[in-house]
Amino acid sequence: AAAADSTALVGRLETAVAAARGMIDGVDDDAVLPTRFGPLPTRHFLVHRIVEGVVHGLDLPTAHAPDPRALEVCASALTQLLLQARPELAGQLPADEIGWVEAATGRAAAPAGLRDVLPLLA
Q: pTM of the prediction?
């Protein structure tokens, strides 16, 4: 991706997102999919892929602003991951969703109160 044209990559991503929206409307959330991580319910697999898409879209040389709903799903998934282990940190999460995603995945400095537990995904 580093050698590719950013505009072309963003266009491909937007096309893929539009196609994916149409495909997931009728999906059974409880159907189990075989994945390289082991069997996962469809709803967990889709959240995983959304997180990956948002995070790697932000990694492009000219960051691609994520779809607002995808950003919401991504930020929520990362919040749930943190709060399962450290519920007392709920009040310290950044309000800016992109800032939170970048801190939680090690792409930006974590806020002082969260430095000992971030990044969640490296």
A: 0.71
